[in-house]
Amino acid sequence: MDFYNEMSAADGRVRPHYQALAAWLDSTPPERIARKRAEADIAFRRVGITFAVYGEEAGKERLIPFDIIPRIIGADEWQTLERGMRQRVLALNRFLHDIYHGQDILRAGLIPREQVMGNAQYRPIMQGVDVPGGIYAHIAGVDVVRAGAGEFYVLEDNLRVPSGVSYMLENRKMMMRLFPELFARHQIAPVRHYPDLLQETLRAVAPQGVNDPTVVVLTPGAYNSAYFEHSFLAQQMGVELVEGRDLFVRNDTVYMRTTQGPRRVDVIYRRIDDDFLDPEAFRADSALGVPGLMRAYRAGTVTLANAVGTGVADDKSIYPYVPEMIRFYLGEEPILNSVPTYMCRKPDDLAYVLAHLGELVVKEVHGAGGYGMLIGPKATREEITRFAALLRDKPDGYIAQPTLALSNCPTFVDEGLAPRHLDLRPFVLSSGQGVRMVPGGLTRVALTKGSLVVNSSQGGGTKDTWVLENHANHGA
Length: 476
Prior knowledge:
Protein name: Circularly permuted type 2 ATP-grasp protein
Number of strands: 23
Number of helices: 13
Mean pLDDT: 90
Helix content: 25-40%
Low-confidence stretches: 53-59, 471-476
Strand order of the largest sheet: 3-23-22-19-18
Distance between the termini: 35 Å
Structural class: alpha+beta
Organism: Amphibiibacter pelophylacis
């Protein structure tokens, strides 16, 4: 299988936007790079940028490996990506508003009604609820890969509680500290203003009539795998980080307990899944949420970002319909490719998937983090047999896709510089005032040779993502 190399063309020539980096690599002694890699590890550990890996016996937390070779995206490539992601997130927000109101797309027969109404992530409690600006997914993480001759494909849309933006920001800070001379050779678009954009987005969706909203970040607590990010973003925005026990509802209004007495809360950037948000409305055994929160939300006195019920739009069984959403709501053709998808609930698709399991990637509809999936070309005969049984037993719980030839990028591994597969998660912010994003995102890289699984929970690492502001290479 041929893989698109982000840095070098097939004839070995370095792509224009990588030339300054390649020249720097050629002129930098390996010992210096090794020393800087060690420095980065120490610094990340000191800052506390760790990731809790569930189910691992050896230690509750570990460092996400950081690779010091940046992933570089040209200005024109980024413009295409940005337009495609704005289009996609706009259509997804329209879809979410529609399915909780008029359901026009279901009545038009473009998406099977049972795929939405019977979806575990569909929240009937949200029917008829008007959210500020009609925005449901205020923060979206869209996973994009390059395949084939370098075309961009959207792998999935993360609309519930997408994480990883803190690593994007810390990776940039680390690279600027370690290699200031590299930034003199490139015009790299900044990302450090993301917390300001996030805060502006959250303030813009405050309930009607609230001019100076109180914004908080709601975390499940210190044992959550993304707790570093929750505390980091609250600190960067200058807002309170709260747990469910810090909030209470009185007269359908949310208040925060403070040393000066109760303070009204207007916008909650929640990093807790729907099921645990309100024990009165969802899981009665949840100790993480706020009793009565949904009453206040439905009364319009508080905004939740992201909205309750957004999960139906990032479900893998809905993913194949996003191109139709773009055509239906926007009257446009999709800018970014989607991956051809077999829906195992369809008998013909299931028959094809079972006959070609060794060639396909099979994913759980509700799966995340690289778990519950089969990568056919890498699977053992036993794994294929086990997945065939799972598919026959619960076909509507799975989709399948061709194995994409993910692009690769030079990465430092134990044996030196070697190509490794990667993806990109840009973060898209939506409010009633429009769709905005910083140029870049979180690049995740599969550190194991030949692996196509980039998730941190599966041993992947991260890279700084550079979007060039123009085509010039600065410096020698």
